[in-house]
Specification:
By secondary structure, the chain is mostly helical. 68% of the residues lie in helices and 2% in strands. It has helices spanning 2-14, 27-46, 48-52, 61-86, 92-101, 118-135, 144-172, 176-195, 207-212, 220-238, 263-273, 277-290, 292-310, and strands at 248-250, 255-257. Strands 1-2 form a two-stranded antiparallel sheet. Helix 2 runs antiparallel to helix 4 (61-86), helix 4 (61-86) runs antiparallel to helix 7 (144-172) and helix 7 packs antiparallel against helix 8. The longest helix is centred in the middle third of the chain and has 29 residues, at 144-172. The N and C termini lie far apart (51 Å). It binds acetyl coenzyme *A (ACO). Pfam families: PaaA_PaaC. One of its GO terms (biological process) is phenylacetate catabolic process. This is Phenylacetate-CoA oxygenase subunit PaaA.
């Protein structure tokens, strides 16, 4: 009966055994994974836009080649993650429809603009840095396909983080104007990056259950704290100032203490009122429409091949 199945499922999770697509799982577990993996996949896809904005204007051929590769990696991550979500019984078409209809969530961070080249550096350093902090534990997620997809994704994210830090280093050690650009990008990306980890533990509605299911291994605040502890010394190394007047090292806990987070801003971005929410969705919809002929041509070609084979 259902209780026994659920108990058996939970003891597998407790023993760190992987749950695979054909295994029995509680419906709420399945729905939670569909929710999280689809949000994650959409984040990768929408995440291509802020940086894609700079491909045509990258300051050198080398920077352009690296940026194209990076943005392409993000597209690849989206594809793995849509595949992982499909193992739970939802189709890629459905997921895409939800994204284009504006009913699916994607990470708040990708609703901020990228007005200067330094933003490409700040995104790699901070946004991909935060993504790694959040995603390394997902390599040990109880759901097999999600955990396995995360291994390669994390390796690629770590290259992205380094390329971002290297851009920041070049700017921070460049001319006074370049240094100012780097500082300005840090000023604009710091707080949104901190918010990426999600609401604080007191208000996070899914954390407790997701931790029991070992979908999440750490709470939002724990990961946020780890990120701050690692990143503040990196900003010091760059000679840049973290835009938080309350930030201080706490000898007793061996952690940085940060100032208050503007949760109103976070809520507004989640409601669709961030600086670029509308623009991002419009761009995605346009790309989907512009790509229609490619999908149709690919289908027509596949049809023709099939017809030839059965002749
Ligand atoms: N942006 C948008 N929505 C968010 C964010 C965020 N930064 N953080 C939390 N939320 C949403 C949650 O999705 C949830 O909404 P829902 O119930 O409608 O789905 C709500 O806020 C409450 O948050 P939590 O209870 O804390 O939700 P959850 O347990 O899912 O934790 C988290 C949120 C940490 C983002 C988790 O889903 C996760 O680890 N996801 C995988 C990583 C990921 O998606 N990264 C994307 C950005 S990184 C990148 O792609 C480069």
């Amino acid at each position: 009966d259902a209780v026994t199945l659920e108990q058996r499922f939970q003891s597998k999770v407790d023993d760190d055994e992987r749950i695979e697509p054909k295994d029995w799982m509680p419906d709420a577990y399945r729905q939670t994974l569909i929710r999280q993996i689809s949000q994650h996949a959409h984040s990768e896809i929408v995440g291509m836009l802020p940086e894609g904005n700079w491909i045509t204007r990258a300051p050198s051929l080398r920077r352009k080649a690296v940026l194209i590769a990076k943005v392409q990696d993000e597209g690849g991550h989206g594809m793995y993650l849509y595949s992982a979500a499909e193992t739970l019984g939802i189709s890629r078409d459905e997921l895409l429809e939800q994204l284009l209809a504006g009913t699916a969530k994607y990470s708040s961070i990708f609703n901020y603009p990228t007005p200067t080249w330094a933003d490409v550096g700040a995104i790699g350093w901070l946004v991909d840095g935060a993504a790694i902090m959040n995603q390394i534990p997902i390599c040990r997620c109880s759901y097999g396909p999600y955990a396995r997809a995360m291994v390669r994704i994390c390796k690629e994210e770590s290259f992205h983080q380094r390329q971002g830090f290297e851009i920041m280093m070049t700017l921070a050690r460049g001319t006074p104007e370049q240094h100012r650009m780097a500082q300005d990008a840090l000023n604009r990306w710091w707080w949104p990056s901190i918010m990426m980890f999600g609401p604080n533990d007191a208000t996070s509605k899914h954390t407790a259950q997701s931790m029991r299911w070992k979908i999440k291994r750490f709470s939002n605040d724990e990961l946020r704290q780890k990120f701050i502890d690692i990143t503040v010394p990196q900003a010091e190394f760059l000679g840049l100032k973290v835009p938080d007047p309350d930030l201080r090292w706490d000898e007793a806990t061996q952690h940085y203490i940060h100032g208050p987070i503007d949760w109103k801003e976070f809520e507004e971005v989640l409601k669709g009122n961030g600086p670029c929410n509308r623009e991002r969705l419009e761009t995605r919809r346009r790309a989907h429409d512009d790509g229609r002929w490619v999908r149709e041509a690919a289908l027509a070609h596949a049809e023709k091949q099939r017809a030839r084979e059965t002749q």
